[in-house]
Write a structure and sequence with these properties.
globular; six-stranded antiparallel beta sheet; alpha+beta; four-stranded antiparallel beta sheet
Length: 403
């Protein structure tokens, strides 16, 4: 939730910096972003929320964070109510960058409200004894994904517009037709290259991600059209512009990774004994042997797998089942074969009773997940984009002394 509010805040700040627009809305988003970070701290530290992310349960600490949250939200909203009417603002045209930034902020606010409702309403219903309510992935997927698709759809059009410039729709559509065509041609080729099964959702997700990337590159080429040389043109661009490009491409990469991983991942839970073989998504898994080994503070059952990719590449993978001596806790250490286009995971389950005349077998989980690395690559690009934007000279304050 703070990420969504912060994203809307960054875009609204750009409009406030350039055109003195949305000043009150920007202040409200700043209050929400900080308040939601405190709310997240309260949820994971107090034990109110039962989740793998709730790594601590301390009611006394939770009371303190809740009281601090109440003081921050109450005082901030009080000051906002008193001072918001005095903040400067100006008008904007309909078909301009300001309008698309406003649409982006509104969409982010709607997504934020949906996530906040799905997170807090079950807790509220339980506290008021209305009954237990379970909100899971279907709720968030049904509402979050279509709205984020609209954000991706509007993004290239927004960056192609100028500030306070009432463009006509026809020239804008003509300018955007090349990115549309490039995305339409390359999206099925990407699915073929990654061996993603063709479907309407896969094609739409690939097109949206490539549409953002091609639209960003088209805007970069457009900005270099009057430069004496490409190198001079690239050097003349501000750091904030480079940061924007990196962040938008990173968002597209993460979106592509999420779509491909969600739609094309294959998982198989299977019973395997040494010398058995299994196949998932064209990858052959050969269970060679099970070994015992001692670690520095644990004993482990150590499996040896030979994995053959569809292109003939071979990899030795060694998942483990560890028992730590100090606590007696049993942990599973998955084996990972990382790759740019896909990741392979093997994890051991529990030992199974051997069939008559057969060797002892294990429950094994095999995963083939395409484009998982793209999600993290996109996150890294967004973070790098933020750092590059901060390095823009316009954001450096200098004390100029009179001569």
């Amino acid at each position: 939730m703070p990420w969504l509010a912060g994203t809307a805040l960054l875009h609204s700040l750009a409009a406030s910096d350039k055109r003195q627009l949305f000043s009150s809305w920007t202040l409200l988003l700043a209050i929400f972003a900080f308040s939601l970070s405190l709310l997240g701290t309260f949820l994971v530290r107090s034990g109110v929320l039962t989740s793998v992310h709730a790594f601590a349960s301390d009611p006394s600490r939770g009371y303190f964070i809740l009281a601090f949250l109440g003081v921050v939200v109450g005082s901030s909203l009080t000051l906002f109510a008193l001072r918001a009417p005095t903040t400067p603002s100006s008008g904007y045209r309909f078909l301009s960058r300001e309008m698309f930034i406003l649409l982006n902020s509104c969409l982010m606010a709607i997504i934020l409200a949906i996530v906040c409702l799905g997170t807090l309403y079950p807790l509220l219903a339980d506290a008021l004894e209305w009954g237990k309510i379970s909100v899971g992935p279907p709720y968030f997927n049904r509402f979050f994904l279509p709205l984020m698709g609209v954000v991706l759809l509007l993004l290239p059009a927004g960056i192609s517009l100028q500030w306070n410039d009432n463009h006509e729709a026809k020239p804008l559509l003509l300018w955007l037709r090349k990115p549309v065509a490039v995305a339409a041609i390359t999206s099925p080729l990407m699915l073929l290259a990654l061996s993603i099964p063709f479907s309407a959702l896969a094609l739409l997700g690939a097109w949206l991600g490539l549409w953002v990337i091609s639209g960003t590159l088209a805007d970069l080429v457009h900005k270099l059209r009057n430069a004496r040389s490409p190198w001079q043109g690239l050097r003349s661009l501000r750091a904030s512009y480079w940061g924007m490009c990196l962040a938008h491409v990173g968002l597209a990469m993460s979106a592509l990774g999420i779509v491909f991983t969600s739609l094309a991942s294959e998982q198989r839970d299977i019973r395997l004994a040494p010398d058995d073989m299994a196949e998932v998504a064209g990858y052959r898994f050969h269970f060679r042997e099970m070994q015992e080994r001692m670690g520095p503070n644990y004993s482990a059952r150590h499996a040896v797998f030979y994995v053959q990719a569809p292109d003939g590449a071979l990899r030795d993978m060694q998942p483990e089942k560890r028992r730590y001596m100090a606590s007696g806790q049993v942990m599973t250490e998955a084996a990972i074969w990382p790759g740019f286009s896909r990741d392979i995971y093997i994890s051991l389950g529990e030992p199974l009773e051997p069939e008559r005349g057969a060797q002892s077998a294990w429950s094994v989980r095999l995963h083939v997940k395409p484009a998982v690395r793209w999600i993290w690559l996109g996150s890294i690009l967004m973070a790098v984009g933020a750092v590059v934007s901060v390095c823009d000279r316009r954001y450096r304050h200098r004390n100029i002394q009179a001569a």
